[in-house]
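Q: Structure for this?
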Amino acid sequence: MSGELVKFLSDLKEHEALQFVESALSEGVDPGTLLEDARQGMNIVGKRFAEEEYFIPDLIFSGEILKGIVKMLEPHLKKTKEHKPMGKVVIGTVAGDIHDIGKDLVVFMLDVSGFDVLDLGIDVPAQKFVGAIKDSGSKVVGLSGFLTLAFDSMKETIDAIKQAGLRNDVKIMIGGGQIDEQVRGYTGADAYGRDAMAAVNLAKGWIGG
Amino acid sequence: MEKKWEAMSPDEKQEAQFQKLLTPKDPQGNDVKFQSPGAEAAYKASVTRIKDAVQLKRIPDRVPLTLLPSMFPFLNAGMTVQEAMYDYDKCAAAFRKFILEFKPDMHIGAAQAGPGKFYEILDYKLYKWPGHGVAPQHSYQCLEDEYMKAEEYDLLITDPSFYFTNFYLPRVFGALGGFTMLPPLTGILEIYGVAFNFIPYALPPVQNTFKALFEAGAEALKWATAMGMLNGELTSLGFPNILGGFTKAPFDTIGDTLRGTKGIIMDMYRQPAKLLKALEAITPIMINMGLGAAQHTGNPLIFMPLHKGADGFLSDEQFKKFYWPTFKAVLIGLIEGGCTPFPALEGHWGSRLKVIQDIPRGKTMWMVDQTDMVEAKETLGSNACLIGNVSSSMLKLGTPEDVKNYVKKLIDTAGKGGGFIMGNGAFFDEAKPENIRAMVDFTKEYGVYK
C-alpha cells in the first residue's frame, strides 16, 4: 500500500494525502513507514523541480503538505535523531539584508535532497557564520542576499572565514537577486547559483559523495 | 474644434499626452519658464526622443538615456539613506546634483527615499527603514507577512475599499487602529438612522487615528512640496520627469503585500476560484489607480514593478491562468485611458516574452532587468519600447571599459531600429560614479542614429 502516499504527495494532492495518513494511522500502519513514504514523495517533487516539470509554487505547496503529514505523525513517532545521508550545509542571508524568500527555497531544496541544513536566518553577522562553521564542522556555506549592499557583506563574511583560518575547510556558494559571476569574483566565493536547484547541485558536487 | 477626450482613440490620446509633456506647465497652469533657450531645447529633444522610442513610428535622433536609481544619488552625495528620508531639502539637493551631473533624457523624481517622519507618525509596519530596523546607510526593506488572511477573500471581493480600511490598513499602520471601528460608508442612505453611522467618530481610538492622519497628511504634503519643487526646477533646467504614477499587476497586488508569497501560492492550490475572483475584482481598481495618478500629475507614464510573474516563479500554465489575464487587462485599461504603461520586468522573464508581447504596438515601455536583451528585442521588442539593462553588479563592480563594451552591445542589438532606451536593469543603491559616467558618455556618443 506504500505507493499511494508517495503518489499523493508527489502529485500535490493535499486532501488525499492527509486523509490517507489519517486512515493508515487508525489501521495501525507504522508511522515510520509513512514518514519514509512522505520522504520518497518529496524526493520525486525535488526531481520534478530539477526537470522543470514543477516550479517554485509546487515546491512550497509540497512543503506545506509535508508539514501537515509530519504534524499528524509526530505524536506516534519515537524520538530518534533524523538521519541525513548527505553532509551539513550552513546557510543565511548576510548582514544588513533581511530578505528570506530565496534563501528559504534553497534551505527547503537542500533539506529534501537529504542535506543537514543549519539555517542561521537573516541579517546574519559574519562572526555568526564563522561560529556556526566551527561548531557544526560543516563543509559547505551558502550566503544569500538581495540588495547590492549584500555584495560587500558577502565579501566581509568570506574575509572573516579566511581570517578564522577556515577558508580551506569550506566551499562557499552565493545567490540572490543581483548575484552573478562578477559578484562571485568580487566576494571570493567558490560558486554562485541562479536558483535553488543550482545550490543543490553545487552542494552535491562538493560533499554529496 | 478640438476633439473631446472621451471621443479620442488610444492613439490620439497618447499623442495628446505626449504633446502635453512637450509643453510643460507649472502648478498654476502657466507655461514653465525655462532657465535658458538651451534648457528648453534640451527638454524638448529629450521628450521627443522618448516619444519616438515608445511609439515605434520613427527612429529617434539617438538612443535616449535614462538612469533609474534607488538610493544611489543620496549615497553618492555623501549622505546616508536615513538623512535622505528625513531631510527633504537634502534629498532634493542630492537628486538635483545627480541629474545635473549625468544629464539623462528622463528621470522619475526623488520620491524613492520617501518621508521617514511620515512612516513614524503612522507607525508603518510593512517595512524596516533606517533607524527602524536597518542601518542608516541601508535602504528600507519589506517585511512580508500574511497581512490578509486566507479566509478573507470574500471580504476583499465584496468590497475592496471597506476591506482595505477596516482590515488591511490597520494591520500595516499601527496608528490606524481606529479604522477597525468604522462602519461602511455605503450604509449612509437616508434621514432615518443616518446619524448612527457617525457614532464611531466620537470614540477616542477613532479620533486618535484621525489625529494621526491629519499629522501624517501635513508631513506628506511637506515632503511632496519639496519633491514637486525639485521636479519643477529640473524641468526648467531641461530635464523631464516622465513619471505619472504607479500601479501593479493584480497578482502582485495580492501576492506582495496582502497574502504574501507563500500565502498566494497556497491559494492557487487551495482556493483558486476565490483567488481568480479577487484578481478580477481589483483589476478595475488597479486601472483607475494609474488613470487617476496620470490625471492628477498630468503625466501619462504609469510605472508597474512586476514581481511574481518572473521565470520559475509560476509554471507557464499558472502564469497564463493567474498572472497574465488581469495584468494584460490593466495594461489595456491604461492604454485605452491614454496612459503609457511602464512595467519593470524584475529578475528573469525570458520564458514569458512570447506571452507578454501580445499587446498593442507602441503603447508601452518595459524596464528589463536580467532577461536576455536580444531575446527581449526579438519578441516583446517588436511591439514595445525596451529600457535597460546594465546590471547592478556591473555598475558596482565592473570597470568603465566593461560598461562601455556592454553599452555598445546593447546599442548594436536592442537599439537597432529604435524602440530602445539605455538604462540600468534594476534600481541601484551602490555604483561607481565612473561607471555611470561611462554609460552616459558612451550612449550619447555612440548611440546617435545615422
